[in-house]
């Protein structure tokens, strides 16, 4: 990670799935972790213990980032605990399983608002709170965890896709606004991933009860793992990717 000062990352949704794997991947690369979680406190403690076992500092913070005041408090608490946040990973969110899979003509504004709060308003609040202090440091990084569904524009996922598309638009503008301050903003867009949310989607869509039933149908013979996404995030915030900004990396095995 270079010879500069110790870097700290705030990872939202850091107690499970992609977020948990990201915390561990960053810790292996020498990053200290502020781990955000909403309900899975025990899992957050377990991930923090694993990070500490690697010799890195970890603190956990409970917050529902869909609520502006809680997202703001999360940022303030993380800053108070660590003194600085150099990396923001906007990972927390949920899929269309929360609101069902209606067609566009059947979509409800309150369902869209719920998804926008998770994937746009929360990340926006955290960016407002944390990006300005990143400008004081040699480098800052913001990663938006989006979805390959924004490319695919699949049926019956309209509200989820609209929210993720808005997140990506925010990332693109932010990347250009903050480049002169040494801040890199990038998007990671996984396809189907072996997480609770991914399994829930496949259960709702096709009655699948195990991701192992899907492996043979996927590129390279396996479903994308959380570690695949986490390793991509770790690369993007590393010195090896110092000249990468305003980019969108799709992790779908070339399945588009």
Can you walk me through this structure?
With 256 residues, this protein is of the alpha/beta class. The protein has a single domain, classed as Rossmann fold, CATH 3.40.50. Helices cover 44% and strands 14% of the residues. The chain is built from 8 helices and 7 strands. It has helices at 17-28, 41-53, 68-82, 109-134, 149-152, 158-178, 196-206, 226-236; strands at residues 8-11, 32-37, 58-62, 87-90, 140-145, 183-190, 248-251. It has a 7-stranded parallel beta sheet, sandwiched between helices. Strand 4 (87-90), helix 4 and strand 5 (140-145) form a beta-alpha-beta unit. Helix 1 (17-28) packs parallel to helix 2. The longest helix is centred in the middle third of the chain and has 26 residues, at 109-134. The two termini are 33 Å apart. 46% of the residues are buried.
Main sheet properties: 7 strands, parallel
The secondary-structure class comes to: alpha/beta
Task: Note the run of SSEs as H and E.
Answer: EHEHEHEHEHHEHHE
Level-1 CATH class name: Alpha Beta
List keywords for this structure.
seven-stranded parallel beta sheet; 256 residues; Rossmann fold; 8 helices; globular; alpha/beta; 44% helix
Précis, in short:
This protein is an alpha/beta fold. It contains eight helices and seven strands.
